[in-house]
Amino acid sequence: MTAITLPIAVTTEDVDHAARAAHQAFLHVATEAPSLRANRLTAVAAALRAHADELVELGQADTHLAPARLQGELKRTAFQLDLFAEEVIAGIPLDATIDHADADWGMGPRPDIRRVNVPLGVVGVFGASNFPFAFSVIGGDSASALAAGCAVLHKIHGGHRTLAVRTAEIVTEALRESGSPDHLFSVIEGRTAAEALVDHSLVKAIGFTGSTAGGRALFNRASSRPEPIPFYGELGSINPVFVLPQAWESRSQSILTGYAASFTAGMGQFCTKPGVLFVPDTYSEEDLRGVLEPELGHAALSELLTPGLRESFGHARDEAAAHDGVTALIPGSDDLVPAPTVLLTDSTVVAANPEILHLEMFGPATLVVRYQQPEELPGLAVLMEGQLTASIHADDADDAASLIDAVTGIAGRVLWNGWPTGVTVSYAQQHGGPYPATTSHTTSVGTAAIGRFTRPVAYQDLPDRELPVPLQEANPWNVARRVDGNVVVAQSQSQSQSGSVEG
Questions:
Q1: 485: left (phi over 0), alpha (psi -120 to 50) or beta
Q2: 3-state helix, strand, coil in the chain (%, to 5)
Q3: What pLDDT score was predicted for residue 186?
Q4: Catalytic site residue 87?
Q5: Pick the catalytic residue: 73, 87, 169, 234?
């Protein structure tokens, strides 16, 4: 791979030029065969692996994150690209559906009508501060958009700029060497460019991971355009954990130690960090402190990702601690590397002041809420805003049905006897929830994320030769389709397409 000079758009004029060039690249790839699109994704995955040592070293310098964390995140990012390539080859994102003409259709004669998903066009992606690989340059949003057949304009995050620029160089060169058109992937930087990106008429969707305030401002901007566009924003989440009485009685110490490890993982800078723990009131303050304090003493601590995050964390933690009825069980510290904080209150306080449950402390701090009766929990759950996750710890003797119903109403992923800070990339994954967790009901993780950057088009009574390839009767691309209500998977699909994926 040869070194390249990466152009970065910083002015409104730069963004206009980049968007127009990206649109031309999109037109070049919009109707291409799945094998070409898959090759592009696997080429980028291979390039990331080839440059892993270099990228991890840059990531350490930029973010203070440990090498093992960065290595795991890079592995996940490359795996995701390969998984998306397999999905593209199978044709799943196309959702090709064929209804043949039927004179005897139940509601009257039916025309020949065929539907397929088409890519939106140019997609703007905002890099996240807390995941320099998985949610940044070629993370979930960029990978999803490329898998859908879109072009990407990526706004690099200043919190890991050196890493972002180098990653973008590697991605750009890998795309070029795979035969992709120039400008299919480009980068921008700065607030002026970010606003111009959201405003540009050729940009058809935005992917965003970041703060509630910043995301909401961009969401409003995208919605107020002359042509409003989808804004797929991940903004904020408290990720409550509910412990039922029998589970608490049988394994309270292991629950508390697991919780301590989960809310301090990555210095509490995961979007799925558990921020509130509901437990029975059978433990005194001394009991809780006696279990949590030694565990937190073993936590791997480091500076937060950026000075801005450090300042915001301190403000949020202090605001939560200032509420009447909230005490500092473990006060933490105000050092540059802050020691973990555990706040304590009870269910009557939060029932009277639900806003306590709306405060996200993005960093190593959490709130423990003691309750008297498990019947309180469904009502406490519905006091919370939309969440990415909600976790329930229960044993067989616990009655969790009402609580499961309640958290299903507020969360995108419900966990049983587990911790939310692990988000695997898979087919069934759902990483998204009601507002303010996200601004849509889609997922930004897993294969279903590709669908965000497509839209369905139906074709009625077109001659076969004029139809998009995946809808033609002979199925030239050999993709999965639904024909007259029946799902039809092409025969010997993997054998016929495997060379395209790996080549």
A1: left
A2: 45, 20, 35
A3: 97
A4: no
A5: 234
Cβ neighbours around 354 below 10 Å, total: 13
Up-side HSE of residue 89: CA atoms within 13 Å toward CB?
24
Residue entry with tokens 């969790």: 400
413, 388 Cβ separation under 8 angstroms? yes
The CATH number of the structural domain formed by 8-235+442-502 is 3.40.605.10
Q: How many helices (H) and strands (E) does the chain have?
A: 15, 18
With CA atoms as reference, report the closest residue to 202 among 36, 25, 34.
Answer: 25
**185-188/151-155 β-pairing:** parallel
* Domain 241-416 superfamily per CATH: Aldehyde Dehydrogenase; Chain A, domain 2 (3.40.309.10)
The predicted model gives 15-26 an average pLDDT of: 98
pLDDT digit string (tens) for 55-71? 999 999 999 889 999 99
CB 41 within 8 A of CB 81: yes
- pLDDT for 489: 87
Q: For residue range 173-193, what is the model confidence (pLDDT) as tens digits?
A: 999 999 999 999 999 999 999
Same CATH topology for 8-235+442-502 and 241-416: the answer is no
| Cα–Cα dist 364/241, whole Å | 16
- For residue range 461-495, list pLDDT tens digits in order: 999 999 999 999 999 999 999 999 999 986 654 43
Any catalytic annotation for residue 150? no
pLDDT the model gives residue 1:
47
- Cα 60–chain centre separation: 22
pTM: 0.93
CB 418 within 8 A of CB 58: no
- Domain limits of the chain? 8-235+442-502, 241-416
Residue count (the chain) = 503
The order of strands in the sheet holding 122-126 is 8-9, 185-188, 151-155, 122-126, 203-209, 231-234
Report the candidate in 479, 497, 501 with the shortest Cα–Cα distance to residue 94: 479
Burial of 68 (0-12, 13-18, 19+ CB in 10 A): exposed
Catalytic residue from among 169, 189, 271, 385: 271
Round to whole Å and give the CA distance between 453 and 205: 7
| Gap between the Cα atoms of 466 and 463, Å rounded | 6
